[in-house]
Amino acid sequence: MSASQRYIRIDKNHGFKIREFESADLEKVVYINRVSLPENYSLRFFMEHHEKWPKAFLVAEVDGEVVGYVMCRVELGWGYCKPGLTRKGHVVSIAVLEGYRRRGIGKALMEEALKALSKYYKASEVYLEVRVSNYPAISLYEKLGFMKKRILKGYYLDGEDAYVMARPLPLE
Ligand code: ACO
Ligand code: ZN
């Protein structure tokens, strides 16, 4: 596979590339998840998402090393943006290693995942849960057009509330 086929986006200014997750990335993605978030998952959980929704599980590389990921799933359910049975993309988890933040990697991962959810899985909206105290993530999602739709009281294991944030697709 040529480099231009393997990479979905190459950002020369900020020195990162986005591509689909591959099985060989599993250990690194699990590591990034564990050092970045209290919500941790089994290896099996990551691999299931890769097997079922490969186009919407992406990683970011800097100098050939994986430094961030976004993992999504697709669900059929009641819409947050429009009423009725809706195919919804669900951003399950996103994280960027601390030393690589604030250079656009999180935003690029989200934009490419949103495009994939709409293009390959025909999702007409996308949603996620986020801790009400997670200002960096909420700012990123608002920048991408997500709106707060509801509060889930005590959603997290430590008792913190979550916002459900959602936006319609496609992105543009
Ligand atoms: N403070 C304020 N605004 C921020 C911050 C921050 N610390 N970080 C990002 N933003 C906003 C800004 O508007 C920023 O644009 P700017 O830099 O031009 O001001 C915009 O988001 C884009 O930022 P990126 O550089 O693309 O984001 P980054 O690569 O730093 O990744 C992320 C953001 C993924 C939230 C990162 O901070 C992270 O890994 N945090 C820990 C893990 C986490 O909280 N993940 C989200 C949990 S919720 C879920 O997974 C569904
Ligand atoms: Zn979720």
Overview of this protein structure:
28% of the residues lie in helices and 36% in strands. It has a single domain, classed as Aminopeptidase, CATH 3.40.630. The protein is α+β, with helices and mostly antiparallel strands and 172 residues long. The model has no long low-confidence stretch (mean pLDDT 96). It has an 8-stranded mixed sheet with strand order 1-2-3-4-5-6-8-7, sandwiched between helices. The chain contains 5 helices and 8 strands, in the order αββααβββαβαββ. The longest helix is centred in the middle third of the chain and has 15 residues. A hairpin with a 6-residue loop joins β4 and β5. Acetyl coenzyme *A binds next to β5, α4, β6 and α5.
Features:
8 strands, binds acetyl coenzyme *A, alpha+beta, 172 residues, eight-stranded mixed β-sheet
Q: Which stretches are low in confidence, meaning pLDDT under 50 for 5 or more residues running?
A: none
CATH topology: Aminopeptidase
Overall strand count: 8
Count of runs of 4 or more consecutive helical residues? 5
Q: How are the strands ordered across the major sheet?
A: 1-2-3-4-5-6-8-7
Rg measurement, Å: 15 Å
The separation of the N and C termini measures 29 Å
Ligand kinds: acetyl coenzyme *A, zinc ion
Q: How much helix, percentage-wise, in residues?
A: 25-40%
Q: Estimate nothing, just give the exact number of structural domains.
A: 1
* Helix/strand/pairing category: alpha+beta
CATH superfamily: Gcn5-related N-acetyltransferase (GNAT)
Average of the residue pLDDT scores:
96
CATH class identity = Alpha Beta
Name the helix and strand elements from N-terminus to C-terminus, one letter apiece. Answer: HEEHHEEEHEHEE
CATH architecture: 3-Layer(aba) Sandwich
Form type: globular
Sheet with the most strands, sense and barrel status: 8 strands, mixed
Q: Strand-residue fraction?
A: 35-45%
